[in-house]
Specification:
There is one protein chain. By secondary structure, the protein is α+β, with helices and mostly antiparallel strands. The chain has a domain of 154 residues. Helix content is 21%, strand content 39%. The chain has four helices and 15 strands. The strands form two sheets. Strands 1, 2, 5, 6, 7, 8, 9, 10, 11, 12, 13, 14 and 15 form a 13-stranded antiparallel β-sheet that branches. A two-stranded antiparallel sheet has the order 3-4. The termini are far apart.
Amino acid sequence: MKQQAIAVAVATAFCGAARAQSNEELKATLDAALKTIQQLQARVQALEQQRPVAAAPQAAPASAAAGVAGAPVVSVATQAEAGTPNADKARVELYGQAMLDAMYDFKRMDPEWNATLRPSKIPVSCPGSAGCGKDGATVFSVRQSGLGLRAFIPTALGEIKTDLAFDLFGTDGTTSIHWLRAWAELGSFGIGQTDSNFMDIDVFPNTIDYWGPSGMVFVRNPQLRFTPYRKNAMTVAFSLEAPNSVLDTGKLTEVDPALGAGITGHNRLPDVVGSFRFDADWGHAKAAAIVRQVGYQNTSAADGRPSGTRTGYGINLTGALNVFGKDRLTWQLAAGRAIAT
C-alpha cells in the first residue's frame, strides 16, 4: 500500500512537470503568434497609408477631365514633409512644339542666322562681301522646335514651382540645344533664368518669324526676383538681372586692329528692374522700369584702359485689350538710354 502511494505520488509529480513544460511551450508559441500578428498589422497599416499615392495614376484621367493640369507625381519610396498642405497635389506638365520653317532666301543674309530674321545679320552688300555666298538659297529649319517641363511640388514652406525649357537655336549657329528657362519659385522669391522682369511676354504678337518683331523688348535673363505683392489682380515685382554690354567698335579695328580686338564689355553691377501689372476682364496693362550700368574695357592692356562706364535707364509700357473671342489688341511703348542688349 505504501509502495502504491509512493508510485501515485511520483506519477502525479511527473504529470505536473509535464503540464508545466507544456504550458511554457504553449506560452512561447502564443507569444510568437502574437508577434507575427503585430507585424502583419503594421504592414497592413503601411499599405493603407500608401494606397492614396498608389491610386493617383488611376485617378489622373478623372482629374484631367475636371480641368486639373499636369500628371500626378508618384513615388512610393518618399513621403511628404510633415505639415505639408495638399501633399498629394504634386504634379508635372510637359509642353513643347515640333515645327518646321521652309524658306527661300532671295537676298542672302548671314548664313548662321538664316533660320530667323535678325536685322543686324542682314548683309547690305551681300553677295559682294566674303563669307555670304550667292543669292538664292532654300532653308529648312527645325530650330524653333522646343520642349519644356514644369513641376509643382508642395512643401511645408509653400509650393515650389519649376520650369525647364529649351529650343534648338544654338548660339553657335547650329541646330543644338538653347536653354530658354531654368527657373524655380517659392513664395515671393524666384531664381534662375526666365523672361526678364522688364519685358511682357503676353504682348508677343502672332508673327511668321519665331523670334517675333525686331523692335520688341524681348530677353530671357538670369536673375533674382522678389514679388512682394500679388493679389487683387495686381502684381509688383523687383529683380536683379544679369547685365550685358554690347559694343560696336565701328572703324576702330581699321585704325588700330590690336586695340579694337581688345575692347570688350565690362559689367560691374547687375541691372535693377521694377514692374507693376494689373489684370482685368478686358485684358491687362504693365509698366516696367530699368536702371543699369554699361561699360567697356581694353583687355589687351594691363591696366584695362581705355575704359569707361555709362548709366542706362528705360521704361516699357505694355498692354493687351480683349476684343472678339480669342482676338486681342496688344501694344508696347519702350524708351530709354542704353537698354538694348
